[in-house]
Amino acid sequence: MQEFVDGLIASGAVPAGVPAWVAYLGAMLVFGGVVVFGFVLPVAGATTWVERRIMARIHSRIGPNRTGPAGFLQWLADGIKNMLKEDIVPTASDAPLFKLAPYVVMLGFVGAFVAIPFAGPLIISDMNVGIVYVTSVTALVVVGILMAGWASNNKWSLLGGIRSAAQIVSYEIPAGLSIFPIVMLTGSLSMQTIIGHQGWAPWDWHVFDNPFATLAFVVFYVSALAEGNRTPFDLPEAESELVAGFATEYSGMRNLLFFMAEWGNLYVIGAIATTLFLGGWQIPWALTDAPALRVLLEFVTFFGKSYFVGVLVAIWIRWTLPRIRVDQMMTMCWKYLVPIAFVNLIGTAVWMVVFPHGVPAVRWALTAAAGVATLGFLRRVRYHIKRAKLQRKHLSFNPLSTARVPL
Amino acid sequence: MGLSGFEVSIERPTNGGGLSTEDMTLSMGPQHPSTHGVLRFVVRADGEVMKEAIPDIGYLHRSIEKIAEKVGWHGFIPYTDRVDYVAAMFCNHAWAAAAEKLGGIAVPKRGEYCRVIADEFCRIMSHLISVGSMAMDIGAFTPFNHAIREREYINDLIEELCGARLTFHYMRIGGVAWDLPPGWIEKATAFLDRFEPLIDEFDDLISFNKIFTERLVNVAVITPEEAIDYNLVGPNLRGSGVKYDVRKDEPYSIYPEVEFDVPVGRGELGTVGDCFDRYIVRMREMRESCRILRQCLRQIPDGPVIAKVPRNFKPPAGDVYYRVESARGDQGWYVVSDGTAFPYRCRIRTGSFTAISMIQKVSRNLMIADLIAVIASFDLVAPEIDR
C-alpha cells in the first residue's frame, strides 16, 4: 500500500503542500474503511447466515429461509434489529468499562485483517513480523472479554470472562509453537514470504512438507478453535452452564459486536491456517497472465480455502461435538497439545538439518494419505445421505411431511 | 439468601497472613437455561469447583393435590396431566387406576392394552426429551433436535389417538376415552420400524462420543445403597444397578402378559451409578418400550375400551395406594375416599422429588459444569417436584 501512496504522490494526484504522512493516514483510513465495511463485516454477517443454514441441516431443520433468497438477507435483518434494540447498561455495572469492552473485542478482530494476504498485491501491510502481529492483535480479544466479564457485575459473566482468559492465554502457547515450524521452514515472519515459499499444488504446501508440519497443522487448528471460543471449547459462553457467559448482560448492538467478532474470528483462523499451511493464494502460473483476473483468481482461491477451513469445518465441528469441561480443557492444552507442539518444533528442526531440501516422496505420500482420507470420508457421507433418504421416503407418515407416502 | 435454614457460613481462611479468598454464592435459576423448568439451586462455589448446591424448590407449586379434593373423581383427570407434563399419560393412568381400585371397577382388556400402548409411547417421548436435553446440556445441540424430531412423530400418533399432544387426559376411570383409530396400529408399527434403527443412529451420534462420555463417566457416582437410602426410583435407581421396576416387581395392567427386560446400569465405561449409567439406561429403556409396544400392537384384543362407570362416581370409603412405573420411576398415588363424589385426600409421590434431594449430596466437590450433567442425568421435571 505504501508503494501505491508513493505513486500517487509522485504522479501529483495528492495536492502539493500536503505532508506525506497525511496522505499515508488518509489512504490508510480509506483502505481500512473499505476493508472493514466492504469485506470484514459482510463476511462476518454472511457467516452467521451460513452457520445457521448448515446448522439447521445438521439438525434436520430448514433454517432461515424467509428474508431474501434462501434467507440470505437474514443477517442484515438481525443486524438492523439489534441496532434498534435498547442498549441496556446495568446500573450496578462499571459503565465505562462495560461500554468499552465490545470495541476492544472488535479491535482485536478487525486489526488482524491488516496483515491478511488476500492475494499477491491485496494486503494492507505486509509487515516483516506479520504472523507475530496477527497472533498478538487477536489476543486483544481476551482483554475485551475479560473487561466485559468484570464490568458486567454479574457472576456468570465473571466466570465466563475468567474462563475465556484462562483458555485463550493457555491455547496461545500451542498455537504459537505450531507457527514456529513454518517460520523455521520459511525463514521469515512475513505473511507474503510464507505464502511465496509454498506452491499452488497440495504437495508444495507446508502442511505436507513433513509429518511434523502435518501434526503442527492439527495442533494449530485445535488451538485456534479454542482461541476462537468455538465448540468443543465454547466454555466462556457455555449457554447451558453460564447462561451466556461474558455476554450475559449485553444487549442490542454491543451484544452483536461480540458475536460479529466471534464469527469474523472464524474467518481469521482460516486465513491464518491457509497462509501458514495451505499454500495461501497460490495459483498455477500458467492459469492467466492478465493481472486483474489473476488477482481475482488468487483472491477466490484464498477466500475459498480460508472459508472452508476456518468457517465450514468449524461449523461442522461445532454442531457435532459436545463441550468439554473446564479442567479437561486445561488438561488437553498443557498435557497434550503443548508437548506435541514442542515435539513438532524439534522434529521440524531435525528434519531441516537432515533433509535440507525436503523429501519429495514424503510430500507425495502425505498428500496421497490426505486424499485417501478425504475420499473415504466423502464415501461415508454419501452412504449416510442415502440411508437417511431411504428412511424418510419409505417410513415417514407425518401428515405435514412432503415425503409422506400413503400407508 | 432468603432460604431460612440454609444460610451458608462463609469461611475466610487467613492463616499465615496469605491472600484470603471467599466462596462465591451463585443463584442458578429459576431462569437458568439448563434447569429444566423453574428449578433453583443455590451454589456455593470456589471458582469453578462447587462446594455445595442446595436445591430450592416450590416455584411451580400449584396445589394439584388440593385441587383433587374440589373437582371430583372424573374432573381431576385433566389436572393429573399437569403433574408431570413431559409424561402425562402415567399420571392419568395412575389416577384412573387408583379410582378403579377404590370403586372395584374392572377395565376391559382392550382398554388396558390401549393404556399400556399410550404409556409406552409416552415413555419413549419422555426419554427422548431426557436424553436429548442431556446432550444439549453437555453442549451438543444436534442430538436434541434429532430427539425432538422423533418425538414429533409420536406426538402425531398420540394426537390421532386422543386429540392432544402434551396434556393428553386420555385415560378415564374405567378405561380409555377413545379406541384406537382405524389404521393406527399400522402407523404405530411403521413408526417403530423407523424409530428402532434411529436409536442406533442416536448412539452413533452422541452416546459413545468420547467428549460426551468423558463428561459423564465417573461423575456423581451413586452406590446402590445410597440410591435406596435416598429413595431414588426409576431409571435413576436402575442406573445404580438396582433392578427394581414396578412393571416387573409389582405388575399392574397387562404388563405380566408382555415380555421385556429391565435394563440396569452396568458401569461399562466407569463406575456403576455414574451419570453415564443413568443416561444409557434410558436409551435401553426406549428399546424395551419398542419391544413392549410391538407385542401390545400384535396382541391387542377386540372389545370395548371403557367399562360402564356411573357419571356420579362415588367409590366406597377407603384408601388406596397405587403405583405405576412412570418415565421418572415409581409414581405412587395415595387416594382416600370418604364415599362422596369428591376424593377426601390425594397425595402423589414422585420420582423427581426424591431425586432432587440427592443433588445436595452428590454435587459436593464437582465442577459447576458437572452440576448441569447431574441435573440432566436425574431427568428432573420441575412440575413433578412441586406439583
Care to describe what's here?
The complex is a heterodimer of chains A (407) and B (387). Chain A is mainly alpha-helical. Chain A folds into two domains: 1-80, no CATH class; 85-284 and 292-358, no CATH class. Chain A contains 14 helices and no strands. In chain A, 42% of the residues are buried. Chain B has 387 residues and is an alpha+beta fold. Chain B folds into two domains: 1-61 and 362-381, no CATH class; 75-349, Cytochrome-c3 Hydrogenase, chain B (Orthogonal Bundle). Chain B contains 14 helices and eight strands. Chain B has helices at residues 64-75, 77-81, 88-103, 109-138, 142-162, 184-207, 210-216, 224-229, 234-239, 246-249, 275-299, 351-362, 368-378, 382-386, and strands at 24-28, 40-46, 49-56, 171-172, 175-176, 318-326, 329-337, 343-349. In chain B, the strands form three sheets. Chain B has a three-stranded antiparallel beta sheet. Chain B has a three-stranded antiparallel beta sheet with strand order 6-7-8. A two-stranded antiparallel ribbon of chain B has the order 4-5. In chain B, helix 4 (109-138) packs antiparallel against helix 13 (368-378), helix 5 runs antiparallel to helix 6 and helix 11 (275-299) runs parallel beside helix 13. The mean pLDDT of chain B is 84. At the A-B interface, helix 7, helix 10 and helix 13 of A face helix 4, helix 5, helix 6, helix 7 and helix 13 of B.
CATH architecture assignment of the largest domain in chain B: Orthogonal Bundle
The total beta strand count of chain A reads 0
Q: Provide the succession of SSEs of chain A.
A: HHHHHHHHHHHHHH
Domain module count of chain A: 2
Helix content of chain B: 40-55%
Number of helices of chain A: 14
Count of the separate structural domains of chain B: 2
Mean pLDDT of chain A: 81
Distance between the termini of chain B: 24 Å
CATH topology of the largest domain in chain B: Cytochrome-c3 Hydrogenase, chain B
> Ranges of chain A with pLDDT <50 over ≥5 residues?
395-407
Head-to-tail CA distance between termini of chain A: 68 Å
Q: Name the chain pair whose interface involves the most residues.
A: A-B, 36 and 41 residues
Structural class of chain A: mainly alpha
Radius of gyration of chain A: 23 Å
Relative helix content of chain A? 55-70%
Spatial order of the strands forming the largest sheet of chain B: 1-2-3
Instruction: Let me know the number of strands of chain B.
Output: 8
